[in-house]
Amino acid sequence: MDIRKIRYFIMVAEELNFSRAAERLRMAQPPLSQEIRKLEEELGVQLFHRTKRMVELTDAGKIFLAGSQQTLLQLERTIEETQLAAEGKIGNLIIGFVDSTEIVIEVLNIFRERFPKINLILREMTTEQQIKALYEKQIHIGFIRSKQNNEILSSEVCSEESLRVVLHQDHPFAKLSEIPVELLIGEPFILFPRQMGSNFYDLIISYFWEHGVNLNVVQEAIQMHTIVNLVATGMGVSVVPSSVESYKRPGVIYKKIQQTTPKVNLYVGWRKDETSAVAEHFLTVIREVYSLLHLDHQK
Hints:
Structural class: alpha/beta
Strand content: 15-25%
Shape: rod-shaped
Order of helices and strands: HHHEEHEHEHEEEEEHEHEEEH
Radius of gyration: 32 Å
Helix content: 40-55%
């Protein structure tokens, strides 16, 4: 049964007049009457009582009308949603993120405003967890701390940060405006495990090693916010990307390092075979925000 016959039936049922229905459909009356009879033959029921004076729905016709209207409405909704999905204006997008950095928050705000019908599913994960999830197609896009460009994954820089020392507010170094690297020799350090982000971990270790500091790691924690919370207990000090400074945990302070620190990059990563229009829209927003933030930081 094609949808055309259902449209014809609904029009006749609304008008209860074949001539007026044919006029609204911009067709002749005889072909319309023939299509309705074919529909009745397909169903094996009579849908209309016809006399020379009037046309009215049978009981079966009334049931079929209610169902037909619902079917047509559902079809129209499905067509609309299909078109929106093709345009990347509706659907689901699973996002992995390692930190709630400035760019991540800004991108999410803009994207939600621009594409309100897209359901964003956020998963806080380490860099290594996100890379594994990208390979296994468990997330569509990840905010990661290491560059990924190979046969399967692509990535590009979306944020550039410096390093900050995070201290307990009562620490002797808290009164200094900047922390010389050499003062950190022997300090108990809280750091994340290397397997949770080898690139970022190696960058930090190498930086301190080049300045004659062999970090005394006394405690490991996976998430940056957990590290800051442990610093607040007085367990030790740590070094974090400058974006973490927005996490205003009572009892801790953030300090610049006196010597020049390496840039800590945040990358956006995705699969090269990712064809979703939704994902492409998300990447576009990331690039826009990165460009604006980059210009602001250069001023």
